[in-house]
Write a structure and sequence with these properties.
Family: In the N-terminal section; belongs to the glycosyltransferase 8 family.
Main location: Golgi
Mean pLDDT: 83
Radius of gyration: 31 Å
Largest sheet: 9 strands, mixed
Helix content: 25-40%
Strand order of the largest sheet: 13-16-15-14-17-23-19-24-22
GO molecular function: glucuronosyltransferase activity; metal ion binding; xylosyltransferase activity
Strand content: 15-25%
Protein name: LARGE xylosyl- and glucuronyltransferase 2
Keywords: Glycoprotein, Glycosyltransferase, Golgi apparatus, Manganese, Membrane, Metal-binding, Multifunctional enzyme, Signal-anchor, Transferase, Transmembrane, Transmembrane helix
């Protein structure tokens, strides 16, 4: 045992001499970050408790990273093994040398070598557009970072929903996210008249000492239109350069705004020299609270508003008036930490080479169209992160072992249960793959109908079906929930397409939800479920994007919901499906006109030529003369398009690509005893398009077809376990095919 202890001491000494690197970290949604969260032993001013949490070991002069060399990782691994043998002496060795066996993660943590530097970043975000901007900002930070991060978002309800869903599905290691309700802070700043386009949210950075946790001592505060070109840890390290009195770190304003010479009678708020820009702020929260920041900024604002009447640049005016009165409290940052790309700024004086840049701030309303001789370089840098594959940022930090969150632990367990030698391994893996999801990618506004009969059209699509959107919006005036399966770059192409379309721009009741691409299969049912979950009406019309509903179908369905007492019964209303093989179609305006086109051969019942059984149970012969809804029975492979309550069963996500994705859903509706009712005066028409990649794989690959058959059989077994003897008919029907 003594020999083992000697080896441990020797290797600890080696690690201290070669690394000085942190060995702990954190994960999304995990509050345990090992050592102290946001201070270091070199800080000018630490509490006694903070000093007690730190070692006196030598440190690197710059911010400490979590990365360690391969040799250091080997030493850490050996230490973990040795720690097992000295577990009985853990109290002695642990307190003396800091070796602890983690019961949670099962990894060896070498505590005293250095403290993991957790970097805190705060941002105010409200609305759909700002949420998109935040994603690009976060990507640029994650791309360069080598430290655990904790993002603090002050959000409205919209941004909270979007960003919380995004980060939960993104699952970036060593990243924690907290949200704070902006509505609870509005009363703190609503009394301040503000002319800036950011509105009340542009004043909320003033409230951070109150909004953020009281034990948080320091934070980097960023605007949403920021792009990082370096590791944010370098900016965090500047806190150590603060003097005892300094509480705020800012870059000088690079425009002439606060000089008051932009036009005749231009009267800006008071500022120190050129003033400071608040797009990037280092806030020493602990010291701000100590000097009574909340009262001080309020008194400053009240005094200046007596003559200025309102702010022009939101919180920036108040920060500058405060600094004018208290210049000793500000630490001026080098200007490359906030290169402000507005027209007529001195930003080009911040760098001799564009490689000198640290942070780019698109603070002009013109954004990417701003004038600057290097704007092409800046634009390309921004676009790189805008279209960067966010999946690539799910990388572990070396030397920062994460405490695994329950969600990730469940996924890891499911993966371990899969057999990699299974011929259908890729299909099974796809079922448990977690895709990033960005809800409400564009502006969305919906006012619920007062009679509880509203219906949302629910569908999914990929880039090759984008051309259908305008036509669907012309045919369906009600709310729509669309899930789009796209890469990051394709999502930006879609954004440009939607912003250029007069039809799509004018429709605010369409929710666009991006499911980001990952893996080799199209997870069609997962994408459908995203659209279904985010419908906001009592009823949903489960459609496909390559169908055009008849004109007036929205109002007809709402009336049918009442007539068939959908609120108190289990019904699935079937909308009969037809198709045309012509790319140019004079769309029928009535059932009579459709029947005429059917008789002339311009239209066909859907899949009549290739998959009759998929829609044959609709009983098109009866539909021709029907004037009232009629019930049909489930049959094998029936896959109609239906209207159901929003709380209907979700689609089974084991089915990916082509085959059985809708069939399985209708089967489960029948198992839950939904009555299938065909609507006599409703129809939809499938428009022609090129075959999908997945149907081509199905037709050409015996392995694909084998796996689909295997998944069908397993679905039948699961259905039998779930619904008992009532589900035996599905297995019997399948065997009789």
């Amino acid at each position: 045992m003594e020999e083992e202890n000697r080896q441990i001491r020797l290797q600890l000494n080696q690690l201290q001499g070669t690394a000085g690197q942190p060995a702990d970290g954190g994960n999304y949604g995990n509050a345990a970050w090992g050592a102290s969260a946001d201070t270091g032993p070199d800080d000018v001013e630490n509490t006694a408790e903070e000093r007690a949490n730190h070692t006196e070991c030598p440190r690197s002069p710059t911010i400490l990273k979590c990365e360690v060399s391969q040799n250091q990782k080997c030493i850490l691994a050996q230490l973990c093994v040795l720690a097992v043998f000295v577990w009985l002496h853990c109290l002695v060795i642990g307190f003396k040398f800091g070796i602890v066996k983690s019961a949670v993660s099962g990894v060896c943590l070498v505590c005293p070598l250095s403290s993991v530097q957790l970097i805190h970043v705060a941002c105010v975000c409200a609305g759909h557009n700002a949420s998109r901007d935040v994603v690009t900002l976060v990507k640029s930070i994650l791309f360069h970072r080598r430290n655990p991060l904790h993002f603090h978002f002050i959000t409205d309800a919209v941004a909270n929903q979007i960003l919380s869903s995004l980060f939960q599905s993104w699952m970036v290691p060593s990243v924690q996210v907290s949200f704070y309700d902006a509505d609870e802070l509005k009363s703190e700043v609503s009394w301040i008249p503000n002319k800036h386009y950011s509105g009340i949210y542009g004043l909320m950075k003033l409230t951070l000492t109150k909004a953020l946790p009281s034990d948080l001592t320091k934070v980097i505060v960023l605007d949403t239109d920021i792009t990082f070109a370096t590791d944010i840890a370098e900016l965090w390290a500047i806190f150590r350069k603060f003097t005892d009195k300094q509480v705020i770190g800012l870059v000088e304003n690079q425009s002439d705004w606060y000089l008051g010479n932009l036009w005749k009678n231009h009267k800006p708020w008071p500022a120190l020299g050129r003033g400071f820009n608040t797009g990037v702020i280092l806030l020493y929260l602990e010291r701000l609270r100590r000097i009574g920041w909340e009262q001080m900024w309020r008194l400053t604002a009240e005094r200046e508003l007596m003559s200025m009447l309102s702010t022009s640049l939101a919180d920036q005016d108040i920060f500058n008036a405060f600094i004018k009165q208290n210049p000793v409290l500000v630490h001026q940052l080098p200007c490359f930490w906030n290169v402000q790309l507005s027209d007529h700024t001195r930003s080009e004086q911040c760098y001799t080479e564009v490689s000198d840049l640290k942070v780019i701030h698109w603070n002009s309303p013109k954004k990417l169209r701003v004038k600057n001789k290097h704007v092409e370089f800046f634009r390309n840098l921004y676009l790189t992160f805008l279209e960067y594959d966010g999946n690539l940022l799910r990388r572990e930090l070396f030397g920062c072992p994460s405490v695994i969150s329950p969600g990730i632990e469940i996924l890891q367990g499911a993966l371990e249960e899969l057999d990699e030698d299974d011929q259908c391994y890729d299909f099974r893996r796809e079922r448990i793959t977690v895709h990033r999801v960005h809800l409400y990618f564009l502006q969305y506004e919906y006012t619920p109908a007062g009679d509880d009969t509203d219906v949302t059209l629910v569908a999914q699509l990929s880039m090759d079906r984008l051309q259908m959107l305008e036509a669907i919006c012309k045919h369906w005036e009600g709310p729509i929930s669309l899930a789009l399966y796209m890469s990051d770059a394709e999502a930006q192409q879609f954004l440009r397409y939607a912003q250029a379309s007069e039809v799509l721009k004018n429709r605010k009741n369409v929710g666009y939800h991006i499911v980001y691409k990952e893996g080799q299969f199209y997870p069609v049912n997962l994408v459908r479920n995203v659209a279904l979950r985010n419908a906001n009406t009592p009823y949903v019309f489960l459609a496909d994007v390559d169908f055009l509903p008849m004109y007036g179908l929205y109002d007809y369905l709402r009336k049918s919901v009442v007539q068939l007492d959908m609120a108190h019964t289990k019904k699935a209303l079937v909308v009969p499906a037809f198709e045309t093989l012509r790319y140019r179609l004079s769309f029928p305006k009535s059932k009579a006109e459709l029947l005429s086109m059917l008789d002339m051969g311009t239209l066909y019942t859907f899949r009549y030529h290739v998959w009759t059984k998929g829609h044959a149970p609709t009983n098109y012969a009866k539909w021709r003369t029907a004037t009232t809804p009629y019930k049909v029975e489930w049959e094998a492979d029936f896959e109609p398009y239906v209207v159901v309550k929003r709380d209907c069963p979700e689609y089974d996500q084991r089915f990916v690509g082509f085959g059985w994705n809708k069939v399985s859903h209708i089967m489960e509706l029948d198992a839950q005893e939904y009555d299938l009712m065909v609507l006599p005066n409703a129809f939809m028409i499938h428009m022609p398009h090129a075959p999908s990649f997945d149907i081509s794989k199905f037709r050409s690959s015996p392995g694909y077809r084998y796996c689909l058959q295997t998944l069908k059989e397993e679905f039948h077994q699961d259905l039998s376990r779930k619904y008992g003897a009532a589900a035996l008919k599905y297995l019997t029907a399948q065997r009789n095919i």
